[in-house]
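FORM 7B: Structural annotation worksheet

SECTION A. Query
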Amino acid sequence: MSVQESLLQAASKNAELLQGLNETAYASSALRQSQAYLNDLDREIKGCDAQVKSLEEKTKTEFSDHKKYADSTARRFMHRAVGKKEKFAEKASKEEREYVEALAAENQAKSRREEWIKNRDEARRHHAELEQTDRAHKNLQTELDALYNSIFAGPTPEFPGEDQKEWALRQARDAFNDAKRKHEAEAQALKCLHDANQFMGEALRSLDAARSHSRMDMFGGGTLTDMMEREALSRAQNATDKVKMLVSQAHRLSPDIQGLGNIDITRGHAMSDIMFDNIFSDMAQHDRIKDSQAQAEKEARTLMDMIARAQQRSGQYQQEVNATLGRLETARRELQQIRQDTFERVARPPAHNESFS
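SECTION B. Predicted structure
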């Protein structure tokens, strides 16, 4: 079957799909707006929840104060006995008024929350309808793409313009996929660096603790201080091991990320520290901890610089993804348009002989 014959046979299906696409084209943008509206409603409801909780506590307090005067015969009798009956009534009235006002404010807040929840329920129903319409639109587009590909895929000498647009789409798709791959790799590498930075912070805190214990040890801290110092150094070693592992993983994902320098966490000399524990061995260990701390602080600054550079690259790759996606969408529309135009030309009853080239 020739291409022209295939076009004529699929003309009615093409018209049906295009009509369906036109009728559902609004769904994608409407869905984004609907999601933004739902996010706003969720924030409002969260704020209302916090306000209601606060007002419930206030109402409870005001009610307790009100009950003290409303139900206290002893207080009333005492005020009456000393000639301050009016003062008691004034105080009781004030407490009752404050309770009533607090209760009213609580009820108003709950009413607002119920209204927001009602609006959100309605918005969710509308959002679900839009999602269904958007899925239908995507299915129609997939079906139309399959129809066009079944007819136009590969060289079509009868329609050279279509071949050019098809080639342009392939180029645009390759560029987009390459940009997306780079961005995803850089994003994963950046996450590794952020995780490494968390462990670097843990290492620095542990070294600071070890240095503090070491300082105490120089002034006669004893065995317990030694143990606490070694435990802190062990935590620092474990943390720096994780830092190195994560930075290495980040480098594999993004070769622009270089490795860190050496971070030598001192372990001390266990036997000599026990057998010859004195001020001189304690001072030597203290100096070794300070050296480890200085190395870690230097590499922490290097790591922060790595993160900043990776964030910059990630942003650049995201811009490239956005740009190539725009070109890809343009190439898709142009290819679909030339195929659509070709359908219309072939399906239109010719008044005279037409060329399809």
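SECTION C. Observations
Helices lie at 3-24, 27-70, 73-81, 85-152, 160-218, 223-253, 270-275, 279-347. Residues 73-79, 353-357 have pLDDT under 50 and may be disordered.

SECTION D. Sign-off
Analyst initials: ____
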